[in-house]
Amino acid sequence: MGTTPGGRSGPLQDWSANRGRPGIQVVLVLFRLAQAARGGGGRLRRLPAAPLMLFYRLVALRLFSIDLPVSTSVGRGLAIHHGMGLVVNRATRIGDSVTLRHSTTLGARRTDEDCPVLASHVDVGPNSVLLGAISVGRGALIGAGSVVLHDVPPAASVAGNPARVLPSRGENPC
């Protein structure tokens, strides 16, 4: 596993991104440990991992209402603010240093594999829904309550239902 800018690697790679949120830190350490235990090696290797994966799912789902499957591809430095109600489809791909907030869904639109890809440094506001095979570009900001069904360009800010690209601060919105 890689190293985050703060020098952490392995199961602690999300630790500094969640400073001040000890419950989320524990959930993400368990997530990373379960991912490592789940690795290749077939059914025999996964068998000892089953109790750890079950414990992670119980803690994440029952205590924090975070549905983040171990099979999900997640980059380093994932930050989760108020994780309650966070749902991520297993086929979603999340880049490095992404921030997710409560009551957010990253999921399929038509088929189970039809899921969002979030580049690095994406910030997703609370109560947002990102559905389908969409790409969210590096540094994009998803406003609270947005429903995102189409690609989001890098460094863009989107908001609304359906989400629309907002003018940058230097542009006149009129």
From TrEMBL:
Tree of life domain: Bacteria
EC class (word): transferase
CDD domains tied to this protein: LbH_SAT
Designated name of the protein: Serine acetyltransferase
Catalytic activity of the protein: L-serine + acetyl-CoA = O-acetyl-L-serine + CoA
Family matches, as InterPro entries: Hexapep_transf_CS, LbH_SAT, Ser_O-AcTrfase, Trimer_LpxA-like_sf
Record PROSITE patterns: HEXAPEP_TRANSFERASES
Gene Ontology biological process terms from the UniProt entry: cysteine biosynthetic process from serine
Keyword Transferase listed: yes
Family note: Belongs to the transferase hexapeptide repeat family.
Enzyme Commission number, as recorded: 2.3.1.30
Keywords for this protein: Acyltransferase, Repeat, Transferase
Molecular functions (GO terms): serine O-acetyltransferase activity
GO cellular component, one term: cytoplasm
